[in-house]
Amino acid sequence: MDGDSTRSVHEAEPIDEKTGSVTVPIYQSSTFGFKKASEVVRAVRGQGKSYVYSRWSNPTVAILEAKLASFEDAEDSAFFASGMAAISTAFLAFVEEGSHVLAIRDLYGESYRLIHEFLPLFGVKSTLVETESLTQMKKGLRKNTKVVYVESPTNPTLKLVDIRRAAKLAHSVNAMLLVDNTFASPINQKPLQLGADITLHSATKYLNGHADVIAGVAAGSAKAIGRVKHVRRILGGTLDPHAAWLILRGMKTMSLRVRAQNQSAQRLAEFLSKNKRVMRVNYPGLRTHPQHGLAGRQMKGFGGMLSFEINGTKRQAMRLTESLRTATLAGSLGGVETLVAQPATLSHAQMSPEDRLRTGISDSLIRVSVGIEDVEDLIRDFEQGLSKI
Ligand SMILES: Cc1ncc(COP(=O)(O)O)c(C=O)c1O
């Protein structure tokens, strides 16, 4: 099989036979015409022609789905209008009234709310366990556990879940393991190879890579994704073809971008860990990370995300985020531009201070999504910012 950079450029994107176009056309069509009424009958049954209506499927979106499936070593994938549409549709595809969900404590906020506030409305109960504890995960499983849900690395403290062992535990009660792979990207981590059943992304982040699209994806076996597509058709969170085309363009440089981001994040993490105004750096590529060994075993690269705690107050952390010149103060991640955020005032502002502290999110924690700028410029920027707090 071709390497990641070759696949980034060519996978699932043949030169257009009719026109020779080297890029995939945008099939900006809501519906597809038929010459014969009998063809309609066959297409609606899933036979013959593939395209009927773009909420069901669309040629540009289908090419993107084939491309992403190849990166995740999946049989198929389903794209959505946001990461949360992918995650919520996947949950609704695999749980039913009376099911139990087991999830880690360090979840992306909206995923936590989906499990904690929304699924109970449909009679689905959940248990949250400490992220790194497989012992708690084992204890939390029940006979009716249908989904085990994890993120690795986690947001914003970069904790890891041992995906291989989590998959074995989930399968011991016939549950499925769903992994949010957004922080790692498929270049750095392939959960399906480690035994997971479904891998999910906010495609808004590394897949697209240019901070100009909101999208999501679920990938897995043809059977599992068939079920997800069935539920997507009902709930309607399908991706628009124009956004699909932008992601196809973004994915051509995914391997280059992510490898550059891995290298720069490592250099920045090492610089920060030596700065006396920094108390702690969370980055799986540092030997000081408590799960550095696991990171080496299950990740091909350590990623472009890191967080660090300054030796100072919430105000000083806010001042640092304002005083950076190359990095921008903004939510989101995974794009070509370096972004910083203070989780206590942005992504995790709605969490109680006690819960924040329990998951290691102090007021002086800063999250960094490392972009593709020259790393010397980034280091200089953080150096001048830290000198002002
Ligand atoms: C880890 C993770 N999962 C899921 C999401 C949700 O994705 P979206 O914003 O594309 O709906 C995000 C968004 O920040 C995220 O960081």
Radius of gyration: 21 Å
The CATH homologous superfamily name of the largest domain equals: Type I PLP-dependent aspartate aminotransferase-like (Major domain)
How many angstroms does the end-to-end distance come to?
50 Å
Q: Tell me the count of domains.
A: 2
CATH topology name of the largest domain, in short, is Aspartate Aminotransferase, domain 2
Describe the main β-sheet briefly: 7 strands, mixed
Question: Would you count the extended β strands for me?
Answer: 12
Give the CA-based shape. globular
**Series of H and E elements:** HHHEHEHEHEHEHEEHHHEHEHEEHEH
Unreliable parts: none
Describe the structure.
The chain is of the alpha/beta class and 389 residues long. It folds into 2 domains: 4-251, Aspartate Aminotransferase, domain 2, CATH 3.40.640; 254-387, Aspartate Aminotransferase, domain 1. Helices cover 39% and strands 15% of the residues. It has 15 helices and 12 strands. It has helices at 4-10, 37-44, 59-71, 83-94, 109-118, 134-140, 163-172, 185-188, 222-235, 241-251, 254-274, 292-298, 314-323, 353-358, 375-387; strands at residues 76-80, 100-104, 125-129, 145-151, 176-180, 198-202, 216-220, 278-282, 305-310, 328-329, 339-341, 365-369. Strands 1-7-6-5-4-2-3 form a 7-stranded mixed beta sheet, sandwiched between helices. It has a 5-stranded mixed beta sheet with strand order 8-9-12-11-10. Strand 2 (100-104), helix 5 and strand 3 (125-129) form a beta-alpha-beta unit. Helix 3 runs parallel beside helix 10 (241-251) and helix 4 packs across helix 9. The longest helix is centred in the C-terminal third of the chain and has 21 residues, at 254-274. The chain is globular, with a radius of gyration of 21 Å. The model has no long low-confidence stretch (mean pLDDT 96). Residues 82-84, 108, 151, 155, 180, 182-183, 202, 204, 214, 216 line the site of pyridoxal-5'-phosphate.
